[in-house]
């Protein structure tokens, strides 16, 4: 009787060990899949630097960036609005992400930049669409942003074939402080550098959610496999 109970006990332990042995890799795989999904970005546009302090009358550059979010993109339309009372557009130079880039600044307060991929060779990843050179015209905080509305084809677009896949809420705008003296611009620039060095939390909540799902699936893999 004692031997039978012992065998049953060790048999149960063996089954549990097998559950853990086979369930652990499955749980970890599900966890890593959720983690990778959490790190994936959406197609969007951004400005670099997003904040900057400059002296009145000085010129400074702002890069217009493209993130395809893993999509194969044929073209991009970046329609940018800026505070024309505080900023003047000196020039717009093409970036290297697209082989063909054109721009127009005919309308005060608006910049239109178009990037087109080579035929049959769509672009993926991130890169610079163009670089804008601004000059401060008057003191104050000048805002620069992308005109973007879901479903609209006359504003900023990231086109996968004939489908606009841009996620407008993910676009990053810019804020630039124009000061009359170099000392005040330096002080503002120092505080902005400190702030920009902190981790960005724009995608933190979906990341935590997906990682949490991965942990839960890992536990289910251990218990029920």
Overview of the structural elements:
By secondary structure, the protein is an alpha+beta fold. It has two domains: 58 residues, no CATH class; 137 residues, Immunoglobulin-like, CATH 2.60.40.680. The protein is 33% helix and 34% strand. It is built from three helices and twelve strands; from the N terminus they run αββββββββββββαα. Strands 2, 4, 6, 7, 9, 10, 11 and 12 form an eight-stranded mixed β-sheet that branches. Strands 1-3-8-5 form a four-stranded antiparallel β-sheet, with no helix packed on it. β6 and β7 form a beta hairpin. α1 runs antiparallel to α3. It is elongated, with a radius of gyration of 26 Å. The two termini are 31 Å apart.
Task: Please provide the count of β strands.
Answer: 12
Mean pLDDT figure: 78
Work out the helicity level: 25-40%
Shape: elongated
Number of domains: 2
CATH architecture verdict of the largest domain: Sandwich
Main pleated sheet: 8 strands, mixed
Name the structural class.
alpha+beta
CATH fold-type name of the largest domain: Immunoglobulin-like
Oligomer: single chain
SSE string, helices as H and strands as E:
HEEEEEEEEEEEEHH
Range of strand content = 25-35%
The first-to-last residue Cα distance is 31 Å
CATH class of the largest domain: Mainly Beta
Radius of gyration: 26 Å
How many helix segments?
3
**Uncertain segments of ≥5 residues (pLDDT<50)?**
2-10, 19-39, 186-209
